[in-house]
Amino acid sequence: MKKYSISLLCAALSLGFFTACEDVPAPYNIPTEDPTPVVTPAEPKGTGTLEDPFNAVAATQAAKALESGAESEQDYYIQGIVSSVADSYSTNFGNASFYISDDGTASNQFYVYRALYLGNQKYTSGENIEAGDTVIICGKITNYRGNTPETVQNKAYLYSLKKGDGTSSQTPVENLVGSGTIEDPYTSASALLIASALTSGGQTRDAFYIKGKVVSVKEQFSTQYGNASFYISDDGTTTDQFYIFRSLYLGNKKWTSGDKQLKEGDEVIICAKLTNYMGNTPETVQGSTYIYSLNGETGGVTPTPGPGGDAKGTGTLEDPLNAVAANNIASALGSGGKTDQAYYIKGKVVSVKEQFSAQYGNASFYISDDGTTAGQFYIFRALYLGNQKWANGDKQLKEGDEVIVYAKLTNYMGNTPETLQGETYLYSLNGETAGGTTPTPGPSGEAKGTGSLADPYNSVAANNIASALASGAKTSEAYYIKGKVVSVKEQFSAQYGNASFYISDDGTSTDQFYVFRALYFGNQKWVSGNSQIKAGDEVVVYAKLTNYMGNTPETAQGDCYIYSINGKTEDDGTGGGDTPGPGTGGSTLADFTNGDFETWADGQPTGWKSASTASNATLSQSNDAHGGSYSVKVGGASQNKRLAYKELELEAGTYDCSFWTKAATSSVASLCPGYAAVGSSITYYYDKMEDDATKNKYVNNIGQEWQQVKYSFTLPTKTTVCLVVMNSKTTGTDLLIDDFTITKK
Q: Which of 726, 648, 731 is nearest to 685 (CA)?
């Protein structure tokens, strides 16, 4: 048996996704009113590990040894006492800036800049930092502008916090069985403990191996999605069962017709990242989960390269690597390691594993020197020519095509040398490099602006700054850039939440500047119902700039969002394109239909699917109806599951709701009705007890006879809502809902 704490699982239980510019309210300013460090002789201590963390002096020295603006390659642990706080933790940005030293004074202090909270999460609640607190920081360090040693914004976090009164903020994870490796996988009970200890929505940075027996299958494999959802436990019973959510098949591939299905009692090993969905549903992470073995079989693994040959090339465009050389370089990396640089790799297509499609825009295929399997190398999810997504009308790959690929290399799982997804694209196809290439800016006009919100750059100034950068470099700070949309290359979608488009001063292609994958208002992902952008819209973008490949000045992905569209800094549903937003133009009370569940499409009740996360239950049609021919069956589980109507914009006032329900099985069911308020975030409001408004009013002991449920709610202002019925995890029983109505008093 083992005992850890979340703070001792630093590498494993850290979030791996944050965007840098989302926490930048204004261009960076070095604090000038904080205590000036008093430099007295002090001894650097520590090696920067968890067991032997740096002190403030050692951290300062390590940062100063870096070149101006450079970041450390590794994360360091730094321990100290908070001497002063520049910016406390808040829900506004989720991070904090403060100074630490060995003794809590201003002597030899080190600047912790915009560090995330415990568990590498944004701060939402909990103890804040104060002078005198003892902390350990985990993260990267930098020498900002060559004269300010500090941590890197959002790449450092509060690993542990010990208050001045001696209390400690850590979440225990005890009695873990296994280590999460293929040789020693976690039990399902251990996976449950680890995921439950994460903050709401948090997920582990690394994937783990988890072993168990299938308890029940919630969603079987199908060719439509290629994944399955099911529960596992150590002994095949519901005790300590863990939810495997939308797992891919063996070899991390989609299930195809003819592959084996899952059944209760199957022994599986899962490779997955873990998450605590909504703070109450420990499960695996969709898109990072697959079955490693099924009853001992590991079929579907990517083929290993054939016999080797002579390694050739240096990896430049003039002298590209051949497949053998690429295999050698990738194979020499540690498991999961990747190269620091990208290489040009030349070969002939042996076979195409995943053809280009408009859905994902990439392809996976094998190449070798002569087009045979001998010495073949795996090109994994390469983008198209010009590092763009493949689009309808672009050429497809075929066996025998001669290609040059530009990519970083990795040793996936320690046994699959391949290119790195997200860092791979097709440079040339049978000698052609045209297609998908980003247009270069037109003739240079007059550069204007200072990059501030009051005086934003124009497209010419943005082009000039980005063009002056070295290849692949990006600016250390973000700027405001103003212009009119010339054309939209990639419109906002719910899949990625960003858009790519060109802007210029006058909306023509002259002096246009490329805004690449910008997030939406407030540095948030675009969601279904938000307005789209269109040619002619006047936008202000807040972004860092980069010189991609040394020839494409553009905004830096992950450091770019739309500050305003046509003068508006938040979505009211009237700006941009034709998609109705959650404000004016969305569905209203008069649009509520299909409360009787008589209309269905693709196996789902029409209207009963939210664009937000309010809908999370499995729905199916039932012939057991209170009225008419059909009702909806809301699947139960060991977690709360919600039936939700699509987003409605309701005026201020009181609303009365009614529906009929019964248990779908011989077991009793439990539910709680209410609504979800949908905005930049989602908040659930359930019916409350008459004698205690702090407690939800559950309808318990629902049997096999239809019974009516009534509830009311009041909205103080116009609000976008989803009507919800929560199927309680208390019983986890499937239940039926029919004849739902809503009226305004």
A: 726
